[in-house]
Specification:
Elements (H helix, E strand, L loop, with lengths): L7 E6 L5 H7 L6 E7 L3 H9 L5 E3 L1 H6 L5 E4 L3 H13 L3 E4 L7 H14 L3 E3 L7 H11 L6 E9 L19 H18 L2 E9 L4 E3 L9 E3 L5 E8 L4 E7 L10 E5 L2 E5 L10 E4 L6 E2 L6 E2 L5 H7 L9 H20 L3 E2 L13 E2 L2
Length: 363
């Protein structure tokens, strides 16, 4: 690990909706300081910079070249992740991006290859898996509270982001959809809980050719749909555990748990992997009721951006790493390939299961 004096100077590229969540977290991270902001819309960059003492609004190229920036926080849309990451790496900057790591496995591979050649650290969301919710569930698995794990289920169902997002276009283009948008939370959580994946088999469908925006200045406008909007499949983990995944923008609601993990001696209800906290529930053989487990692991009371603090202290081995993000992306892309070819797909990559996070409170 690094030292408490390690300060990571961060420049954010992309000042859209997601930046607000990072702005709520970064001031509380002792090893991270936001020093610059850039966006294709200069007014948005200026608005972000105005909220942070000492931060400057720059153009994208100025920010990437700035010697005062150690790491580029890439909050652009998925289709641009690859371009910005490669520019940042070429400029000698570390990179931490929103999920997914890139819009395709091929682009993600280029990012990691460039970073390895340059000796650059790459991190990637989701960092929700570092919170007390998923980490407490992971500790329960590691401590043998359910016995040997056998299976898991992961379910994300929604009618679609166009109902609330004022500009949902990219959710329905390649790089978006329920799998690439929400799947990183669930697949990364499954990797964290149960280890890497060796093969997948999937099926997919798309209910509509267009979606109608439900809010904001474009309400009533339609956007085309060019991706699968309902994806389901089975992930075969290296350990032999089978995880069943359902990701949908076509469903009204579900009463299924976001994630469940089942073992020979018990079952866990795991909190929403899109959040950092939440209750983990356990029921073991012979129990009449589910019990809520105490928080026993993970960063407590944090939000999006804690992965930057973890990276700042990790000496090149962050838990929310490019390797984990690449593996998760290959799993998801392979599910789509399987859905369209009707055959099981072997996963070529693997990753180390990230180390557990001790119970840690960030002031």
């Amino acid at each position: 690990m690094g030292t408490p004096e390690t300060i990571l100077r961060v420049g954010v590229v992309g000042c859209g909706n997601i930046v607000e969540q990072y702005l709520q977290t970064l001031p509380h991270l002792g090893n991270v300081r936001l020093v610059a902001a850039a966006d294709l819309d200069p007014a948005r960059a200026e608005a972000v910079a105005a909220r942070v003492d000492g931060a400057r609004a720059l153009s994208v190229d100025e920010l990437i070249a700035d010697p005062e920036v150690d790491l580029v926080l890439n909050l652009t849309i998925p289709a641009v992740h690859h371009e910005i990451a490669l520019k940042a790496i070429a400029a000698g900057k570390q990179v931490y991006g929103e999920k997914p790591l890139a819009d395709t496995v091929a682009h993600a591979r280029e990012i990691l290859a460039a970073a390895e050649a340059a000796g650059i650290t790459v991190g990637s969301a989701p960092d929700t898996v570092l919170g007390s919710g998923i980490q407490t569930a992971r500790k329960a698995v590691d401590d043998g509270l359910i016995g040997r794990p056998i299976a898991a289920t992961a379910t994300m169902t929604t009618p679609g982001h166009e109902r609330w997002h004022p500009n949902p276009d990219f959710y329905y283009q390649p790089g978006g959809g329920p799998l690439l948008d929400m799947g990183p939370y669930y697949v990364t959580a499954l990797i964290t809980l149960l280890g890497p994946v060796t093969s997948v088999i999937g099926a997919a469908s798309s209910l509509r050719d267009e979606r109608t925006i439900g809010s904001g200045p474009r309400a009533g406008e339609t956007v085309p749909v060019n991706i699968d909007t309902h994806v389901t499949g089975v992930l075969v983990h290296e350990s032999g555990v089978l995880s069943t995944l359902v990701m949908s923008f076509d469903t009204v609601a579900s009463r299924a748990s976001r994630i469940e993990v089942h073992g020979e001696q018990g079952s866990l209800v795991v909190p929403d992997p899109n959040n950092f906290d939440g209750a983990t529930e356990l029921k073991t053989l012979g129990d009449d009721e589910w019990q809520v487990l105490d928080q026993t692991a993970g960063y407590v009371g944090v939000g999006r951006g804690i992965g930057l603090q973890d990276l700042a202290l990790a000496n090149g081995s962050p838990r929310a790493s490019g390797a984990v993000a690449f593996h998760a992306l290959e799993v998801m892309e392979s599910l789509v390939e399987s859905a369209h070819t009707g055959r099981s797909i072997a996963i070529e990559s693997t990753c180390e299961r990230p180390s557990a996070v001790p119970l840690t409170t960030i002031a």
